[in-house]
Amino acid sequence: MLNQPRPSVFETVQIGVEATPGTAVPALIRLQGTDIKPKPVPKIKPVRAAGNKFNTASVAGREYTEAPVSGDQSFTDLCFLFNMNICKGVASLPNGNGTLTVRRTYTPHPYLPEVFTTLTVQRGNALQGGKQFPYGIMPDMTQTWAEDECKVSGTMWGRKLDKGVPMSGDAIQTIHVTGVPTTGTFTLAHGADTSAVIAFTATAATVQAAVAALASVGAGNVMVTPYLPDAETGKLLQAPANTALNAAGAVFYIQFIGAMSEMVVTTLVAADTFDTGDVAVAVLQVGAAVTVLPQIVVPPLSVGVFIGKALNTLVQLNNLNAAEAMMNQREVLQNVIDNRNLSFRQPIEKAPTFTGSITVDDDSDAVAYLESLRTGETLYLQIVAQSEEIIETIANVNYHHNYVQTYAIRFDTSEDGTTNEYETSKFAWFGVNDAALGGAFSATIDTNIAANVL
Which of 44, 247, 266, 339 has the most CB atoms within 10 Å of its CB? Predict the structure, then answer.
């Protein structure tokens, strides 16, 4: 991997759906609409020895990752966010005869535990690597709807953050010298092609040139990077470019890029004439194609907001300036004393803070909402949106990316203000359990994300 500053403009976010929460998997799905910026949160306790005015030492405790999430609402990305924050969606085929349109239904149970999806998350780029954390969950999520944009934001948590991790996708193999040779050379073969002889004291640049010269590889399709173990932790860290292959503990990463990126690559075979030891080849990462998730942005002009006292008599709001919905404090981290895991053990579901608001013109409708606030009656708030992109057409019916989100709410505060020179009223609400809705919230999202992906 290139050892130089990483411009943020080239950073991408890749995720993998974990089969076992906390067990990292290849992150082979690339998000385009949602940014995730992980940072480590170590817990360090200062220690002050008796008789000293200042701290004299420190003790490390459990560590976790915190990652702000932000972006435009995207129908495809929201499926993953809902699966982490709301509950795992139930997939179905809404049209019965189609094969591409998959509907996911989210109805969190009012009193039973939920099943959530956990993710392995990477942020970086293919040539320079990046950061990775497993057990990605999303305890906080906020959706906003306005005249010119629909946004989503929140916070993810995860286990301990690793840096300098290769991004999933490219095949990566490693070579290192065993023993302590004093004479001899070696070659690397890829399929039927064998490299020129290479000295056991070669640098990464020399090995890269030899592999790139193979007819089955080619220039620009391989990158070799030297690594050395950290003196304290033993973890491999990127080493200076002039590091020799026979340096103590040295490991060279051979990453296949360019025309050979994101594909399975035949494992190199080493042959040597060393007087002692040999060159060992290992597969660090099997190459695989990365699925780039289409960024199907929720268009503000397609958003409709409805409100009413019964689900079958909802009326569209014509005077809405903005809306907001938040599902926060969804989970809390559980830590136990266990030297086998330096991060949190698992998250525990808790009662969430389920709130939101609508901002409307200060007119007769606002007067009615104020009365609803005073009487404490339950209302239903429904937000629908549809993209212009058609997933498939069945029996002359077009199926689009879309969602329908329905909330059972009660207003609790009202605040007058001004928006674009208009007098407005902002009504804050909280979610309530409702028998007709089957809880406090229900949603469906139609996309072309296959049922077996989530």
Answer: 247
